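To whoever is on call:

I kicked off a structure prediction for a single chain this morning and the downstream step that reads the tokens threw a length-mismatch warning. I double-checked the sequence; it's 194 residues and nothing unusual in it as far as I can see. Pasting both halves so you can look.
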Amino acid sequence: MNDIARREQILQAADRLLRHYGPQKTTVADVAREAGVGVGTVYLEFPSKEAIVEALSRSRYEVVLEAMQKAAKADGRSFGERLVGAFDARLQAYFTQADNGAHACDLFHCGSPAVKSASERFYHEEITLLVDLLAQGTTAGELDVADPAVTARVILRAYKSFSPPWIFMEERDEVGRLHAAMHAIVLRGVLARP
């Protein structure tokens, strides 16, 4: 087995365990046993359990970011629709991943420094995506944003309440209703006025 296949095997085993037991109750020995490899083999690929958790958390956030990017690039849609679409895709990606086990959400939000690191990286990637979208929309004359970097940060702060763990504390229909209301508020602030 090559290094890439072994690393993937370890990540898949860790993923199954973390979804079921969570990061706090999963050990490197558990991961090794689930992967069918020795503990030393796990340490050859990952220096610690936190490194495994961070890799899995980053992969979760990458799914969310890819969904946002796809919606933001939707041809034939206005920039306002792309902005709304990116946040709708974000929310849906969170919900879809949350359905994958009792502790699936832990890889988005928990006290783990590894998860916090992955979350911070995702935040910067979201900012980059939004700055680009806002700047393009302003250049096209559809949006009116004086400083895309500041506006992107403000918008993400507004949408922070539509991130884990808060979105999992209410009924999904209610979260969706509030999310739609947030879109209306945000769009009124960035759409160009005739």
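Update from on-call: the warning came from a stale cache, not from the record. Cleared it. Sanity check on the structure: The chain has eight helices and no strands.
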